[in-house]
Design brief:
391 residues, alpha+beta, FAD/NAD(P)-binding domain, 2 domains, five-stranded antiparallel beta sheet, 14 helices, 32% helix, 22% strand, elongated
Length: 391
């Protein structure tokens, strides 16, 4: 049978290898790091969010403008991801928000079962194999045993994006593809925390969560929570707003989203003249200390005038908020453009070379959407490589 090489041993690469091996092909997986799926394991430390238990039509809006993912995700949607994980012996549960997790709440048991299955299928995995590009049609690697050159019949690239470089996604592959005429979109942070220059007034609240809030940036909004950190703000409630924040939209927060503006103004006007604003925020609105501190911090910077306190609570600007450096982002936007590939995710500039995972130009919020699309594109690219080899 034909020989295939998969470069990158994250979820997308391993899924591509699974498809190729199932079709009877010899498969070599090359991974630059000393161990496989490092970002996958890191993501699973706080509970591996496999997917979101939603119908396909409810799942797809999470991928925004990347509507070209529709047929790919349709063949490996949330239901299929859960069936695949159970097929590896993993018990799953669905949380109150619809997020699906292994009962073990870790990535390592699933990864061990997956690697065992791949090993039984004959997949060879080589770590400390860093891809250096092409020599004609051959792949060049720097390995712990010295230089290696391989000329496969098909190649799947699953090299990740450009964040968390220490785990393997350093984006260095972009230069090699650009030299071959592959159209790329510039990398940008996605699912990013924010830098905010706090005053000393905020220090006692570092590590505290802002719950029951509504964040707004441009046309995007989110009801998720965020945590105040020494560097700024972080958390799932903010990550989905990254596309708007990249475009320069201002960030605002509604600290009392379950109370209408008119009702809030009426409560404020009923406040006793002897009651201080902080007392009213605590006793009448029952806001926790971190919310009160954030209100004072930002309303003071914004120069909010007296009488507009209720309006500020509903639309408090987070002044000076900036996206954290790209390498700290959970994921990245940008990468190989859809127009650079055919319908099987094969590079038109390099026939026989397929791409999958986060190195493709798409983005999605956290909550299971990222991993679902990585697995789905890996499966699609692997199946595309199988069809290529069958010709």
């Amino acid at each position: 049978m034909a020989h295939a090489v998969v470069i990158g041993a994250g979820p997308a690469g391993l899924m591509a290898a699974e498809q190729l091996a199932a079709a009877g092909h010899d498969v070599l997986v090359a991974e630059a790091k000393p161990s496989v799926a490092r970002k996958f394991l890191m993501a699973g430390k706080s509970g591996l969010n496999l997917t979101k238990d939603e119908t396909f039509e409810n799942l797809m809006p999470a991928y925004g403008a990347a509507d070209w993912l529709r047929p790919i995700v349709a063949e490996f949607d949330a239901v299929a991801v859960q069936g695949w994980a159970r097929g590896l012996g993993q018990e799953l549960f669905t949380g109150s928000t619809g997020r699906v997790f292994p009962s073990a709440m870790k990535a390592s048991p699933l990864l061990r079962a997956w690697l065992r299955q791949l090993d039984e299928a004959g997949v060879q995995i080589r770590t400390r194999w860093r891809w250096l590009g092409w020599d004609g049609d051959a792949l060049r690697f720097d390995t712990s045993e010295g230089p290696q050159v391989i000329k496969p019949d098909a190649t799947v690239l699953a090299l990740g994006g450009a964040s968390w470089a220490r785990l393997g996604s350093d984006g260095q592959w972009a230069k090699m593809l650009a030299e071959k005429g592959v159209a790329l979109a510039s990398f940008e942070p996605a699912n990013s925390a924010l830098s905010v220059a706090w005053s000393p007034h905020m220090q006692p609240h570092f590590g505290k969560a802002l719950k029951s809030v509504r964040w707004l940036a441009g046309e995007l909004h989110s009801r998720g929570e965020a945590t105040i950190s020494a560097a700024g703000l972080e958390g799932g409630g903010l990550y989905s707003l990254t596309p708007a924040l990249r475009r320069g939209a201002d960030l605002n927060v509604d600290l009392v989203p379950d109370l209408g503006a008119k009702a809030l103004q009426a409560r404020f006007e009923a406040k006793s003249a002897k009651t201080t604003l902080s007392q009213w925020l605590k006793k009448a609105l029952k806001l926790p200390p971190q919310k009160i501190a954030l209100f004072h911090e930002m309303s003071k910077q914004a120069g909010a005038s007296q009488g507009h306190e209720a309006a500020s609570l509903k639309h408090l600007p987070i002044l000076g908020a900036q996206l954290r450096p790209m390498d700290e982002a959970i994921s990245t936007a940008g990468g190989v453009q859809r127009g650079a590939m055919d319908g099987h995710l094969m590079l038109t500039a390099k026939p026989g070379v397929f791409c999958a995972g986060e190195m493709l130009d798409w983005e999605a919020p956290t909550g299971g959407y990222l991993l679902t699309a990585c697995l789905a594109t890996g499966r699609w690219a692997g199946r595309g490589a199988v069809q290529w080899l069958a010709r």
